[in-house]
Amino acid sequence: xxxxxxxxxxxxxxxxxxxxxxxxxxLKNGHHYYLAVQAINARGASRGETLVKASPASTPGPVRDxxxxxxxxxxxxxxxxxxxxGGRTITSYRVRYATCHIGGKGCTAPxxxxxxxxxxxxxxxxxxxxxxxxxxxARNSLGYGRSAxxxxxxx
Length: 155
Prior knowledge:
- Helix content is 0%, strand content 43%.
- The chain is an all-beta fold.
- β11 and β12 (143-152) form a beta hairpin.
């Protein structure tokens, strides 16, 4: 049995198994579900049910609308929160930037950590006329999610 509200159970159908664990799929992150387990055999159903609260969660999705605006020797980065925070609060953003392919062989990219409440960052003292690749990744209590990328060339 599972439900999004206590005392409003939806019967999910009997599960015939000798296992002591079960995985429910396709639940929504950040929603609370109340689960009850009852043993049933040829003599009938067990008396007690233990009600437990579960809240599925995952790492966040990528930031949205990531933009890099060029200024003299700097890039102004702006973005919106991910469409999905994975069911947990965004705690920070990791920002990596470099003139090479980030993650590529021999590429060293500085890493900055930005508050989870921020949606803007100015990269100062960059080399004008050089293209910079930027990768931003949101983090919640379960870890980093998927990255979003943008490129920009400071003047």
